[in-house]
């Protein structure tokens, strides 16, 4: 109380803070909770007005398509929250994941395939993380380059061939397995998202990632090992991408190095539309889950309405421009 | 005594530049409060005051970089306030910045004409660019290769290129903000002579400096600012250096003696922090000791190397030489990195709380938990209940208002943000506390609470090292004050010896002898 008494002569700082312009309040609210409202509205309107949307088959299809991108995006959320923009190399990682799952398990069995994928994920995390976290290289350029390296390696190792799973294998069954009405891929998506949400919100590592993303200098001065945070974030992203590749490979029962193009951008769309800030420090994996569901529903609506791939691309691109602008406006308003 | 004229030009001509009742505030704090200033053509007008007195802000208003909240800026009788930097520039006001604003990768010539690059149909006219740059350099009598990238020049030469850049605009009013801070004595001489010459050509010059001898060497009149307010404007012949320093620090020292929490030095206490021969950019060979229960203050002007010193000591920035040991419970540890300093019980409250101290988009609870996260988790899983009660306890101790740990740190006022920074570190029960400008931009009430908390830490046995540009604060808190200038400690004053004048004299390097 003494503070405000002393300050009466001068214009009080707290007063000016409370008088944030209405537009700032609106953009702040939109960035914070917009996705929930928009998703709910779209779902309700679609259920009423779009033929075939509310059918069980269609909903299952939406989740089946959302699952691989959703798992990739859940892992990549760590990179975005650490204020390192995004991990473009998920494109190479998803394809690698699918090829390893089908190719390696065809010849060496599933266990070996999983181990190989895990090692590859660790290598991706280390290379991206060390370049960005230790050498302070730009994340976009580093991961763009590792995408190139990764795809090149994959083409070399696979000889550019397409892999098909054999009938009756575990993978084949995984791709079609359902628990009640829910496909396994959807259950995997939800479980992975919940697990990563726990890591982000309830562990010291997740806490360090958020703090680093919010203010790297303050995090360092509070004793956070910043290199470890960045390497860890890229490693989580890599594991997410590998698992996404597994799900994609199992679902389609094919694997080829070109199968994952556009996954970088689609994952980013889910993360940003969900409301995780590209400026870092703010966001959640569950928001990403919601974002991927929203983007999938939107795509599904366009398919049901007979709008082709070109329209879908335009819609997702436009959506990101809007979401990123709202994010930037909200940040400006709260500064 | 160079070209100083007996008759001040101020009395001969009408002012070329005039600030009338200018006020400017940032947030709740007035940086400049109802200040007027006149400078005549041919006059060199000194502007002095402590750190944060409002000198730079006033000059940025004159140069149109800041719009005043109130008041007018007249150039040759015409009001240019509110017109922005372009209007002030067109009216002939140029500012030589305190921080160098050159682009290192560009050449000397390109830098000099940055913002007014001559062009033909959108293409840079290189020969005209060079001709005009050469002209500006000739006017200040400096010879340097026009095609040399600025990055390859010495700091002093860069300063002169900065001046050439201002001169190239053919200003009528030229403002210098601490131009000699990075110069050697010989370079300073050269600069002062140059300024004299420019004034002789009829320019009106405002000269800001912490260095009192320079003011007396070239200025005709001098204006003193204190806490954003105009104190006095006098002819230089009517004042002595001591009187000028009095005006700068100028608090009524008569009457009630200020209540001080500082006390003597306890020689028997254990030396907790010992730094020997610290070398770092901006710091040359400093030795320092802090005992348990003692608050050691570091005084000096902005740029004296105090922040660089404390950051080098605790390893927050790399040091190029010297050793630091921290002794706890009779066990000495070598401090080689910031991590080892943290492990040894150091808490560091940095100068810039918004960029270094707090994660503004995170909650108060999260900010407080960050340096304490190991203690607040089992395995690596955070214990949210423990974090909440821990944060609650600490915001009560520091008196955060409102005491809402779930609010974002960025939503609080400066004083309350600083309390959150303190709370972060109090939770670790630190044995060595290093504070850099602990109350900058903090209101009076919060300031008193922060002082109380720091004293409590010392009373509980912590060794405290505090950097402050706020003289009364430094005097009030410190049991011992080291004064720094140009990267070295130039004097040490015990609580009894230290006065605002004695600290200021050491800091400014004025030959003003012993203060009473």
Description:
The complex is a heterodimer of chains A (335) and B (516). Chain A has 335 residues and is mainly alpha-helical. Chain A has one domain (33-334). Chain A contains 15 helices and four strands. In chain A, the strands form two sheets. A two-stranded antiparallel sheet of chain A has the order 1-4. Chain A has a two-stranded antiparallel ribbon with strand order 2-3. In chain A, β2 (178-179) and β3 (182-183) form a beta hairpin. The longest helix of chain A is centred in the N-terminal third of the chain and has 28 residues, at 22-49. The two termini of chain A are 25 Å apart. By secondary structure, chain B is of the alpha/beta class. Among the domains of chain B are: 9-92 and 171-249, Rossmann fold, CATH 3.40.50; 104-164, no CATH class; 272-345 and 465-509, Rossmann fold. Helix content of chain B is 32%, strand content 26%. In chain B, the strands form six sheets. Chain B has a six-stranded mixed beta sheet with strand order 6-9-10-3-11-12, with helices on both faces. In chain B, β13 and β14 form a beta hairpin. In chain B, α13 (384-398) packs across α14. The chains are: A mainly alpha (335), B alpha/beta (516). The A-B interface holds A 1-7, 10-14, 16-17, 201-205, 207-208, 210-211, 214-215, 217-225, 277, 279, 281-282, 334-335 and B 25, 27-30, 316, 338-339, 342, 348, 350, 355-362, 366, 369-371, 373-374, 377, 380-382, 384, 401, 408, 410-411, 413-415, 424, 443-446, 448.
